[in-house]
Each structure stands twice: as structure tokens, then as C-alpha cells.
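Service request form, structural biology core

Requester: graduate student, group of Dr. S.
Request type: structure prediction, single chain
Budget code: on file
Notes: please return the result as C-alpha cells.

Sequence provided:
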Amino acid sequence: MEIATFGMGCFWGPEARFGSLQGVIRTRVGYTGGTTVAPTYKTIEDHTETVEIDYDPTSISYEEILLHFWRNHYPNRDQYKGQQYVSSLRFHNQQQKLIIDLVKSEMEKELGEPIETEITPVGHFTLAEDRHQKYYLKRYPNVLDKLYWLYPSEESLINSTFAARLNGFVKGFGTRDQIVTEIESWPLPENARQQLIRQFMILKW
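Core staff response, request fulfilled:
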């Protein structure tokens, strides 16, 4: 797995969008870029709302992630709410930085103007409060009740690929057929795959 970290405004929507992509294994939201030691949503100050994803580079490349990133938000929005909602890329190594520079040049041509995304080393990532993780999925508490056998803890929910897909699905990203087809390809025992598919198909939204 490799890690990508970025900010696109409010982190709820981007977590759902990227959680729906095949090759993305885990999603979580948090805060980066600021100077305080332990930021929270109420004390965010100079931090930025950020999404962090683990992904399989044999299924989705960093270049593809960057294209999804830049094509799904406007990167030159004024800091109307301080640093909280700025467009940001937090690179983890110099290889990512090189790829960012190349894709940025391509996207500036596509956008027709310079891109003002804040590009810095990742620094420290502080996990956001539980209520912000898988936000759209949590708007369906009856569904979470039915999934308790899979996710008895908040940590297990945050780390789940299936939960990431469900969070994207309820936000309107992906279809039932796409999710079922993907589950059928997961490296799980056949009975486990079929159990997940059955559970998914009976969920009421």
C-alpha cells in the first residue's frame, strides 16, 4: 500500500468520493499543516481539513489520484474560512512531489490558469473526531446496527474497505453492480465474499 494525503475543502465529500474508487483500500479524515499539537474541529486554527487514503498502486496510480483530486474541486478558491478548506497536497516523498509537479502542469493547461493548490511535505496527520469518519454512512444508523458484527469498534469501521465503499455509495458514487463485482474480486475466502454481498444487498437506505 501507498498513502496519499490531500485537502479539497470540507473533508466529508472527498472521503466518500475517493472511498468509492477501486484500488483505494482505506480512507480517513483529519487535520494537517498547522502549528498546534492536537487540533480538533473546534480548535482547527491554522490546520486544513484533510483526507488520507491508503491505496494499491497496482490498481490505481498516484497520477490517477491526482487527476481525480484536481478535476473534482476548484483549487484557486479564496481562503474564505482561513486554512480550513484550502486546496492542499501533502506529499510523502520526493517521488510523489515529482508526480505532483508533472500532473499540475497538465492540469493548468486543462484549467486554463495557474493552480494555487498548497503543496507541502505531509508533516503530522491528526485523525479527526469519530463523528467525521465515514460521515455519510453514519447518517444511516440502522445500517450501522446491521453491520455491527463487522465493525464492533470505530477503528474497525475506519480501516474497512467495505465501509469506504458504502460511504461512497450512499453519497452517490458507484452502483450496486460495481460494488458487487469488486467484492467478487477481493482476496477473501469465497464464503466471506458471498456473505458481504448478501449483507450489502439486503441493506435498506
